[in-house]
Amino acid sequence: MYQVDLNCDLGESFGRYMLGEQKEILKYVTSANIACGFHAGDPRVMRETVRLAVDHNVKIGAHPGLPDLNGFGRREMKITPQEAYDMVIYQIGALQGFLTACQTSMQHVKPHGALYNMAAQDEKLAEAIAQAVYDISADLILFGLAGSELTKAGERIGLQTVHEVFADRTYQADGSLTSRSQADAMIVDKEQSAAQVIKMVTEGKVLTQQGIEVPVKAHSICIHGDGEHALDFAKYLKEQLLQNKIKVAAMS
Fold first, then answer.
1. Which of 6, 63, 65, 210 meets the CB 3.0–4.6 Å disulfide criterion with 73?
2. Three-state SS string across the chain, please?
3. Average pLDDT of the residues in 74-102
4. Rounded Cα gap, residues 89 and 26, in angstroms
5. EC number(s) per UniProt (predicted)?
6. pLDDT tens profile 120-176
7. What number of other Cβ atoms are within 10 A of residue 247's Cβ?
8. Distance (Å, rounded) from C-alpha 117 to C-alpha 20?
């Protein structure tokens, strides 16, 4: 039987701005990536999301991003590897405080948005992020885009490294995600999404926008919690995975 983790980016509300249906989504996912205040989230939201994840027995990870609330961390910034290291250390520490207060532990770290995509291609940024995670704890799991510089950096330094794929994004021939600036970046049809995911898990391949199949590792599947149909996607995707005899379970 195949096995895969199903993760979702959560805790991305801020102040009076509410985003996503995380109480319901947590019924279907096995890992939660919780925003740490830079691209989204605030202390109250972090605390509440940690508690919800604990109540649903969902594994918790830090979701550090660029300091860009207005752009939701999805706009690239020119940063040095040292700045990337410091940002990741700081944000992991912020979430760890709430985990300690709730007497639970952190499973993983997954960079967010532009930071994630930059590290997927920039070896030095990837190494800095992997080093930050390793310096906090060598027992943490690093999530990165399948086959990217980030997963390579995690593996080199000795971290357990998860190759992540996306349920609601299209792919390019080099294995990268289609830029959100393009109209065909997002998959809005849940049946198309499920078919792509099942192919990635069972065949280790993804059909790109160029019409060619490229190899891909699929240890964990991401659903974006801010997506318009995120809850529907999560429910349907889990049903389809189980129907295709794919076990859904957290990495640890």
1. 65
2. CEEEEEEEEECCCECCECCCCHHHHCCCCCEEEEECCCCCCCHHHHHHHHHHHHHCCCEEEEECCCCCCCCCCCCCCCCCHHHHHHHHHHHHHHHHHHHHHCCCCCCEECCCHHHHHHHHHCHHHHHHHHHHHHHHCCCCEEEEECCCHHHHHHHHHCCEEEEEEECCECECCCCCECCCCCCCCECCCHHHHHHHHHHHHHHCEEECCCCCEEECCCCEEEEECCCCCHHHHHHHHHHHHHHCCEEECCCC
3. 97
4. 26
5. 3.5.2.9
6. 999 999 999 999 999 999 999 999 999 999 999 999 999 999 999 998 899 999 999
7. 10
8. 22
